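S.,

Sequence below, as promised.
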Amino acid sequence: MTTSELATRLEKLDRKDPLRDFREQFFLPMDANGQEMVYLCGNSLGLQPRTVAPLLNQELDDWKSLGVEGHFHARRPWMPYHELLTAQMADVVGALPMEVVCMNSLTVNLHLMMVSFYRPTHQRNKILIERGAFPSDRYAVESQILHHGYDPANALLEIEPRSGEDYLRAADIEITIKDFGHELALVMLPGVQYYTGQVFDIERITRAARAAGCAIGWDLAHAVGNVPLKLHQSQADFAVWCNYKYMNAGPGAIGGCFVHERHAGNPEIPRFAGWWGHDKASRFSMPANFVPIASAEGWQLSNPPVLAMTPLLASLDIFAAAGMDRIREKSLRMGRILIEQLQQNFAGKVQIMTPQGDTQRGAQLSLRITHGGPHIQQALIDAGVICDWREPDGIRIAFAPLYNRYTEILRFLNILERILDHHG
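The prediction came back faster than expected:
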């Protein structure tokens, strides 16, 4: 396919794109000449919805005019503010509303979940993670093992891809769970691997973990807002995520947490308690004994940070209007086109680390550049393409279907070609 033919194809896709108007609901970074940059970094920080500032200003105005009375009389009362997020967040992750709560940050929520679901015994004390997990996950898991008095050298089990491969095979994960099942207390894996962009089969791996009799939790930082999820159906024990990537809720945004229905109403599960997780009917009676809310909200510690939650409220409205099915359909199509072009025109210069099957990848394609490394990534930014570099040798390109156009694929390819030609 010639460049002209590709341009015609992409322009036609943009015209017919059912999501095309959502781009106007976001602010896009501009270069020094006032031209919109090609933003391919939604896997790291999503763009700001235009409705964030008006919604935040409403909260600031209510704070200014109402003071403490805003907890009950603001246009969106603050005391139950987190409940405004629950139903739409549950739709995004495929859960029942009572299984979802937006609170804290991802790693804080991971620790809270491990308090409840990592219950090591002399026989079962191992946690299975992937080698090369996002560092924060590894630090959290290792610290929990140490907290319980076990040695990570023995209790931290790491699985890695086969020699010469970039990503894990589901069958290898299943075999590892089966082989070590009698020693495993917890399996903790990502929904989408942050470095390679590989999508994990949550339901398949969860079945294997439950068959082995161990708990299983998922880090969905790179999966939420990226790929369709069915957390309730999966039967996973818990999941945690951040909302500043594909969910566009701003830097350091409030996180999310899923606790399956079979656990959410169980008051006997050990947990770290806080007053906002206490039964709502008696919370303000200030009782001495903690009675958890019979849902994921029972893991809350403190009252909702309204100003931090407001950007997520804005983004969730956009996701509800767009629908994850349409987002996923466009994401896959954009990925197929980019893979096709890279294979045809960049052979020997660019290696695609991400699995190429539709069920094995999300919006992100991780590229290994033969020559240049981080210098290529910086050159891309200087030329108007925002992407990111991850050690040791990956440039991550991620489409956000709500605001990326098909024609931006060609713009990216043209810029990449010029840069690679320049760097030889």
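The two ends are 24 Å apart (CA to CA).

Coffee later?
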